[in-house]
Write a structure and sequence with these properties.
Elements lengths: L5 E7 L3 H10 L9 E8 L3 H11 L6 E3 L2 H5 L6 E4 L6 H10 L3 E5 L6 H14 L3 E4 L6 H13 L5 E9 L22 H17 L11 E9 L2 E10 L6 E7 L10 E5 L2 E7 L5 E8 L2 E2 L5 E2 L4 E4 L7 H13 L10 H18 L7
Parallel strand pairs: 1-2, 1-4, 2-3, 4-5, 5-6, 7-10
Antiparallel strand pairs: 7-11, 8-9, 9-10, 11-12, 12-13, 13-16, 14-15
Helix pairs in contact: 4-5, 5-9
């Protein structure tokens, strides 16, 4: 067997998302396409960075830097993974780009579409790769589901889809310094959770991945506590096909782990299962429900596709992004720049209708 190609990562922050990502980079797996090496970690607390490296990089000894700039300037780092809070993404991306580094930045890519365009323009001018870390789109489950939906048409013509992401956080009683209490940081359910529910809707109803495809009509409502958005509901309607989707998100209740998304077609339906909409583990294809005796709904036998795997699922995104960089591409074929902008524009419109504004708007 030929040796796997390798790529060297610089990691920004030692928070929860970064720990999940790095842990998956270190997984030993037979299906790996790339050897991932964590070369550097940037953190405001070097001691915490060392502890992070000991726990999540057991086979490596990365450099621990007390500033992000040192990560950008490390000649051994090929690509920077940005796992900082939303409001810092734009600056972190621009700084990494200016240093000539390739970038993978967590979702939401920025706080609004205007900021995303600014970052992408800077990357194009510098000639470096950059992509949004929407790991849901890279998962084998997601890719196979799209094939069954849009190529095999296993449930006929799709006409509607629903998805909800809820995580109870008790916003009014959180300390004032917490992210979820700060509007200026992009707090709220939409950017953190709703982006996943919206992604399920778009993947289900809008199979084309082209920059010039028609945009959906949007009808949205939001609920707030002070200036913090708590609950968002959006209806997306595609005039050319009549397809409709409902995406909801909230920090007032935890969602149903047994039903992450439901997709209806003229010949049946699909239900997606897992711990939450960002981490699906399986989906079941059902024939059309029928009316039985006494008007009872009869559910036919479904076929379940199981995609449970070691780790959390970041490894698939890491492999795809690494291969893009190693092959000289400047954007991801799975989450191209225009798709990140499209999703940001959808969320901008939901916020406009719902009344959520950030200082950067």
């Amino acid at each position: 067997m030929s040796e796997l190609p390798s790529i060297c990562w610089g990691i920004l922050t030692t928070g929860k998302i970064a720990s999940w990502y790095v842990a998956d980079l270190a997984l030993s797996r037979p299906d790996a396409k790339v050897r991932h090496i964590v070369k550097a970690i940037g953190t405001s607390d070097v001691s915490r960075g060392r502890n992070f490296a000991q726990q999540y990089c057991p086979k490596e000894t990365p450099e621990i830097y007390g500033s992000y700039e040192e990560v950008y300037n490390d000649p051994d780092v090929d690509i920077v993974y940005i796992g900082t809070p939303h409001a810092f993404h734009k600056k972190n991306c621009l700084d990494a780009i200016a240093a000539g580094k390739h970038v993978l930045c967590e979702k939401p890519f920025t706080l609004n579409a205007r900021e995303s365009k600014e970052v992408f323009d800077a990357a194009k001018e510098k000639g470096v790769f950059i992509a949004e870390a929407m790991w849901l789109r890279h998962r084998p489950l997601t890719i196979e589901l799209q094939r069954l939906l849009h190529q095999e048409k296993v449930i006929g013509e799709i006409f509607r889809a629903t998805s909800d992401f809820g995580c109870e956080l008790d916003i009014p009683n959180l300390p004032l310094d917490k992210y979820y209490r700060q509007n200026s940081m992009g707090a709220g359910s939409l950017l953190d959770l709703g982006i996943y529910a919206l992604t399920w809707i778009v993947l289900s109803l809008d199979p084309e991945l082209t920059a010039d495809r028609a945009k959906p009509k949007i009808m949205a409502a939001q609920t707030h506590w002070e200036d913090i958005e708590l609950t968002s509901t959006a209806i997306l309607q595609y005039p050319s096909t009549g397809r409709q989707g409902v995406a909801t998100s909230t920090t007032m209740a935890t969602g149903n782990p047994d039903l992450l998304a439901r997709i209806h077609g003229t010949a049946g339906s699909i239900e997606v299962h897992g711990s939450c909409p960002s981490a699906p583990e399986a989906f079941t294809v059902y024939p059309k429900f029928e009316m039985g005796a006494g008007d009872a709904v009869v559910r036919g036998k479904g076929k379940t596709y199981d995609f449970s795997a070691p780790g959390r699922g970041f490894q698939y995104q890491a492999d795809n992004i690494a291969l893009d960089v190693l092959n000289g591409r400047l954007e991801s074929s799975i989450v191209p720049h225009f798709e990140t902008i499209r999703m940001m524009e959808i969320m901008d419109e939901i916020r406009r209708q719902g009344g959520t504004r950030y200082p950067t708007d």
